[in-house]
Design brief:
By secondary structure, the protein is of the alpha/beta class. The protein has 13 helices and five strands. It has a domain of 178 residues: P-loop containing nucleotide triphosphate hydrolases (Rossmann fold, 3-Layer(aba) Sandwich). The chain has a five-stranded parallel sheet, with helices on both faces. The longest helix has 22 residues. The chain starts with 8 loop residues before the first strand and ends in an 18-residue tail after the last helix.
């Protein structure tokens, strides 16, 4: 009878905050077994990926003598139900949370949806529709709440305990990636040199496909081929990624950026108090000397 191997740690997000890079870094560590599928989302109720328990556990069937078993699903952070299900199934699981300046995370999420063709409006148009409560015409209706980190982080700290939660700040990680990875390995009780590719950036911005590329990505014949090459999930997005090219990022207007900073300010202040540390994210006042009271 095959032994069921459950993960012993989770990279739970936030989305667009370096989870893909961290997942790929940790895959290179011999003492760590990472799920061959990133983002299985098993613990999210009614998740669109549809992983059953049997299918989920099959992801870890090749575990051998690895010290730690991990998976990365960025959607777990915003799902209280997911946190409770993880705690119930794996009470002593370790949790890694990646956070990013909420303004930049929101904009990065927009760019990703622009790249994949899910959004065609400018960011300013999308934000205007959000402020006008035109929910059907704004992707930000879903994206902005994901960038409100305080309650999400507090939830995981309360459920798993401070000692079982490691929080990485995206801006600090890209500034000193070596130290960040070393900290993660220490958190996981693994003595090992960092991977050789620790400076590589994953999920970098690339230009939208345009009509021609989109037609290729949606082509039925190519889709059939993709089912054989990419049997697991998100075939269209993977085709888009292959066909995309790196390009110059669109920029957010200064006015929109200031409005977003103001929108997130109170949540960031509460998060700083919760973590008992300042965060390297600018506010509308650009007050870098702000201290926790």
């Amino acid at each position: 009878m095959t032994k069921n191997n459950w993960p012993t740690f989770f990279i739970v997000g936030a989305p667009r905050s370096g989870t893909t890079s961290l997942y790929n870094y940790l895959k290179t560590i011999p003492e760590i077994f990472m799920s061959p599928v990133k983002e299985p989302g098993y613990f999210i109720p009614n998740d669109f990926r549809g992983f059953t328990k049997k299918k989920y556990l099959e992801l870890f069937k090749n575990v051998k003598d690895e010290i730690m078993i991990g998976e990365a699903s960025a959607g777990y952070l915003a799902s209280r139900e997911a946190s409770l299900k993880i705690k119930k199934e794996i009470p002593h699981a370790k949790i890694i949370i990646t956070l990013r300046d909420p303004v930049e995370r929101t904009f990065s999420d927009y760019l990703n949806n622009l790249r994949t063709g899910n959004v065609k409006r400018t960011f300013e148009q999308d934000f205007h529709n959000f402020l006008s409560n035109d929910e059907q015409k704004s992707h930000l209706k879903k994206s902005i709440p994901v960038s409100m980190f305080f309650e999400q982080v507090e939830n995981y700290l309360n459920i798993f305990g401070k000692e079982s939660v490691k929080i990485l700040i995206f801006e600090e990680t890209i500034k000193d990636t070596k130290k960040a990875i070393e900290d993660v390995l220490e958190f996981l009780d693994i003595e090992r040199q960092i991977p050789e590719n620790f400076e590589k950036q994953y999920n970098a911005y690339s230009e939208p496909l345009g009509g021609f590329g989109t037609n290729i990505a949606k082509n039925k014949t190519i889709s059939k081929i993709a089912k054989k090459v990419f049997p697991n999930k998100n075939r269209e997005n993977m085709l888009r990624t292959i066909l995309n090219k790196k390009g110059k990022k669109p920029k957010m207007s200064k006015e929109t950026k200031m409005k977003l900073q103001d929108l997130f300010l109170e949540d960031v202040k509460k998060l700083e108090k919760l973590l008992e540390r300042p965060l390297p994210w600018p506010t509308i006042k650009e007050d870098s000397e702000r201290k926790i009271k």
